[in-house]
Structure formats: structure tokens, C-alpha cells
């Protein structure tokens, strides 16, 4: 997160989240005061920035990381915690856009994120409620089930990936107690406590030699005669910079900002659900086939964490719990009236293609726009940035070919045009269902 948690991100109640309430102890990091030099300055203390910092430091670079608020209080520490290998665009979409050979190369690279995150968790002993119980995509109608069947066939035929299973309505109901028309089950998925993972990644980065400064909003980026990032109370001069602020990155690089749309994302955590009220007996992570996706899972202490609803502007609803509850109760009528103990939200970024925007302009490196798949993909992107900065850009170059088009009309018109587009898809969802 780049901006202050009490400024640009105010009103979204991250401090009231289930994740903050159950976070592992973590040190505070002092704000940047004065002028320092480094090999690499990273802007943003989420998983992208922390991973870039960690992997760069492990390659011998002196790294300084600037976080505008608190480590993990951006999208990395408040998301749904769903570990879903791959990209937001599925196998069929990748093949259509890039052809089978390049699509498989992109799929294989993206899939590395799973192994990387699991290795980091084990190597650095990160306690983050990891559950490798799988991910289920529920078909909201029968035509969606056919689409999932086609996706599974494409995964097997083009990607040589067969770790998916198509479930009947009854089989899906055995894993999650809501009446889907069927589902695609991905056993290599799972879920975790994203804030505790992010805090663990920060601990690993510090152990590798990274200097972290919290409450240090980056206000200016200069490129000549060399990279210099300034805050209100100091600056860092470096050979390279990584911009990893995602939806909260403001103004430092217009070519980056023009390719993402910040949108509101909201989650609730219920009271602990016991016995027959445990609506996900298989403990899988779940999302559905709506364009405006509902996604949910159980926490380690038995709460339903449910995210969803249609909010197309960055301004938050006045009552987050009241905003999300109808979507939760539509999915699980048996939970009508249950107590909601936590409700929070924040901004995430989407791109025109729903594929990440990763690459560099000279010595200015960036990665963002994961469009809902950033829980593990962000860690991989950070590693790819570090590889490129230290001399091997081959894998970053493959990802950079995904570069989405800027939003039409630039930052001034992207909001209204995006709202119109989302309203059209939301209307299509209602017609289909």
C-alpha cells in the first residue's frame, strides 16, 4: 500500500477486519527520515513489493522498501485468502488470445506461484492457517457448467494439466451446502490467512537485509540523473525502483496508473458456525461463475468469510456488513440473521484484459492489476521483478507481453466507462439467472 491508511484508504475499515483481529505479532517499522541510498527502492509493502525486496536482497542488493501505511494493510492483507493457481483469464481465454503454445507457457509460469508460496511458507515458518483443501468454482446455471467442462477439457488438452474434476450438482453440494448446478474442483487450490502470510514475508525480507519504512508515502519519483523516490520526510536514491502499490499507487508513473481501475471489494466474517451451520464441510475455497463473483471460505476458527456484491466505484458503502449480507444470505439462506462479527473492505485493481500489468520502463519496474488472482500471483511477480533487475529478464518478458490496454479516456474517464461496462455484465448475470 502506498498511501496512508488514514488518508486515501480511510473508511474501508481494514482495522476492523478479521485478519487484523487475528494477526500474528509484528514489529513496527520507523518512517523514513533523511536521505539514503540503495541499489533498489520498492514502493509498496504488500506481497509484490515484499517478494521483490526479499528476492533482490537474496541476490545481494541493498534494498529499501517504503510503505505508505502499515505492512499488509493494502489488498495483500485483506483479501479473500483464496489460493487459486493460474491467471484470471482461463485456459480457453488464453488460447484464444495468444495461441496454444504461448498460452501454455503463460499458464506454466503462472502455476509456479503455488509452489513458490508453499516453499516460502515452509522455509520461513510462516504461521498463516494454510489449508490445501482445494478450490471449487460453482456453476450458477447449467450453461456455466458446460463452460466449466470445456475449460477442464482445454486444460487437459493444451496445458497438459489434469488436476481438475467436474462435479455433479450432488457432488458439489457435498462440498459446499448451496445448490450449484455442478462445479469444477481444483484440488491444488486452497486458502490461508493473507495478512499473516504478508507479515511473514516481511519478516523474511528483513532477515535477508531489507530495510522497511512504514508510514512513508511516496510522493515523487525522479528518473534523472538516477532514480530518486521522495517522501514528506526523506528520500531514497537507487539504481532501480519497483512500483508495487496496485490500486493505491497514485501519480508516480502515469503509464502504470492508466492501465488499472481501482474498485471496491468487501468481505464479512460471521460468528463461528458449528455443526449443521458449517456450510462448507469440505473446507474448500469457493467462488462462483457470476461475472461479479461471490467468493468465500471458512476461517481456521469456523467463521464464514464471504466476499461479494456489486460495487463499481472506490467509494465505500455506509454499512459494509449490510451491503454484503444479502449476497451471503442469497447463497446460504440457512444463515439468515446470523451474527456478523467483522466487516471490512478496500480497493483492488482490475485491468481491461483481466490479466496483470507487469514490466518495466527503463529502471522503473512494476507489477499490479491481478484482477482477483493476486493472493499467490503477487509473490511470483515480485520474484520475476527481482530476477529482471539482477540480470535475467526472460521470465518477466514473457509476463510483460500480457500488458493490457489503457482504460479508454485515461484516468478521467476510466471510472464512468468502467461502471457502464460492469452494469452491463451485472444485468447479463441477472438475465441468465
List keywords for this structure.
433 residues, eight-stranded mixed sheet, 12 helices, 18 strands, D-Amino Acid Oxidase, Chain A, domain 2, globular, oxidoreductase activity, disordered N terminus, FAD-dep_OxRdtase, alpha/beta, FAD/NAD-bd_sf, FAD-binding oxidoreductase, disordered C terminus
Describe this structure in words.
With 433 residues, this protein is of the alpha/beta class. It has a domain at 129-190 and 262-349: D-Amino Acid Oxidase, subunit A, domain 2 (D-Amino Acid Oxidase, Chain A, domain 2, 2-Layer Sandwich). Helix content is 34%, strand content 21%. The chain contains twelve helices and 18 strands. The chain has helices spanning 18-21, 47-58, 91-98, 100-123, 142-157, 169-175, 194-207, 254-257, 320-331, 374-389, 394-400, 410-432; strands at residues 34-43, 63-66, 82-83, 135-138, 165-167, 183-186, 190-191, 211-213, 220-222, 227-230, 234-243, 261-270, 285-288, 295-298, 304-307, 340-350, 357-361, 364-368. The strands form three sheets. Strands 1, 2, 8, 9, 10, 11, 17 and 18 form an eight-stranded mixed sheet that branches. Helix 2 (47-58) runs parallel beside helix 7 (194-207), helix 2 (47-58) runs parallel beside helix 10 and helix 4 crosses helix 10. The longest helix has 24 residues, at 100-123. The chain is globular and about 65 Å long. The protein starts with 17 loop residues before the first helix and ends with a helix.
Amino acid at each position: 500500500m502506498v498511501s496512508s491508511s488514514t488518508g486515501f484508504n480511510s473508511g474501508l475499515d481494514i482495522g476492523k477486519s478479521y485478519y487484523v483481529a487475528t494477526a500474528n505479532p509484528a514489529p513496527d517499522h520507523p518512517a523514513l527520515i533523511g536521505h539514503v541510498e540503495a541499489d533498489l527502492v520498492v514502493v509498496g509493502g504488500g506481497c509484490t513489493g515484499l517478494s521483490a525486496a526479499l528476492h533482490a536482497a537474496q541476490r545481494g542488493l541493498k534494498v529499501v522498501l517504503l510503505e505508505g501505511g502499515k505492512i499488509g494493510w493494502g489488498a495483500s492483507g485483506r483479501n479473500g485468502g483464496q489460493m487459486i493457481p493460474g491467471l484470471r483469464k482461463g485456459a480457453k481465454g488464453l488460447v484464444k488470445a495468444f495461441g496454444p503454445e504461448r498460452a501454455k507457457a503463460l499458464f506454466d509460469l503462472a502455476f509456479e506461484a503455488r509452489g513458490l508460496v508453499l516453499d516460502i511458507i515452509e522455509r520461513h515458518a510462516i504461521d498463516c492457517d494454510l489449508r490445501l483443501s482445494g478450490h471449487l468454482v460453482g456453476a450458477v446455471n447449467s450453461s456455466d457448467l458446460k463452460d466449466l467442462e470445456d475449460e477442464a477439457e482445454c486444460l487437459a488438452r493444451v496445458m497438459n494439466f489434469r488436476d481438475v474434476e467436474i462435479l455433479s450438482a450432488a457432488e458439489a453440494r457435498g462440498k459446499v451446502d448451496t445448490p450449484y448446478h455442478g462445479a469444477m474442483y481444483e484440488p491444488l487450490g486452497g486458502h490461508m490467512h493473507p495478512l499473516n502470510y504478508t507479515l511473514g514475508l516481511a519478516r523474511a525480507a528483513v532477515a535477508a537485509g531489507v530495510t522497511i519504512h512504514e508510514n512513508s508515502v511516496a510522493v515523487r519519483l525522479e528518473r534523472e540523473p538516477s532514480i530518486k523516490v521522495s517522501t514528506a520526510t526523506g528520500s531514497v536514491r537507487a539504481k532501480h525502483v519497483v512500483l508495487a502499490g496496485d490500486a493505491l499507487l497514485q501519480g508516480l508513473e502515469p503509464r502504470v496508473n492508466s492501465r488499472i481501475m481501482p474498485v471496491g471489494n468487501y468481505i464479512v466474517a460471521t460468528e463461528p458456525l458449528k455443526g449443521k451451520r458449517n456450510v462448507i464441510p469440505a473446507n474448500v475455497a469457493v467462488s462462483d461463475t457470476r461475472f461479479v463473483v461471490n467468493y468465500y471460505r471458512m476461517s481456521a476458527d469456523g467463521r464464514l468469510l464471504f466476499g461479494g456484491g456489486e460495487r463499481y466505484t472506490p467509494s465505500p458503502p455506509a454499512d459494509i456488513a449490510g451491503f454484503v449480507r444479502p449476497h451471503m444470505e442469497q447463497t446460504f439462506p440457512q444463515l439468515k440473521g446470523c451474527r456478523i462479527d467483522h466487516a471490512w473492505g478496500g480497493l483492488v485493481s482490475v485491468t481491461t484484459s483481466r490479466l496483470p500489468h507487469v514490466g518495466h520502463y527503463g529502471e522503473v519496474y512494476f507489477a499490479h492489476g491481478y484482477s482477483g488472482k493476486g493472493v499467490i500471483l503477487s509473490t511470483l511477480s515480485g520474484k520475476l521483478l527481482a530476477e529482471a533487475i539482477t540480470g535475467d529478464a526472460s521470465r518477466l518478458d514473457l509476463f510483460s507481453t500480457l500488458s493490457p490496454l489503457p482504460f479508454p479516456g485515461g484516468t478521467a474517464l476510466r471510472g464512468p466507462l468502467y461502471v457502464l461496462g460492469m452494469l452491463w455484465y451485472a444485468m447479463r448475470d441477472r438475465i441468465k439467472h
